[in-house]
Design goal:
74 residues; mainly alpha; two-stranded antiparallel sheet; 2 helices
């Protein structure tokens, strides 16, 4: 069996996101009820900033301001 496992989501060389029909993990099928948000999938796949902008208007992970720590009882 090759390392080129095409039943998992991947990007083509031109930046096209491919989520194969045969993908057993339905959480990658963002259009389904049980699917993750597209931005979560892009993060899982390690999309670069340019690719990210092609698919979503959500803030790129590295551009997001750090979450503020809160102490309990506030």
């Amino acid at each position: 069996m090759s390392d080129d496992n095409k039943d998992k989501p991947y990007f083509k060389e031109d930046g096209t996101l491919v989520i194969p029909f045969a993908c057993p993990d339905h959480s990658y099928k963002y259009w389904k009820k049980e699917g993750k948000k597209l931005s979560e999938i892009l993060k899982d796949l390690g999309a670069d900033k340019e690719t990210w902008k092609k698919f979503t208007t959500d803030t790129y992970p590295d551009d997001a301001p750090p979450k503020k720590e809160t102490s309990e009882g506030e």
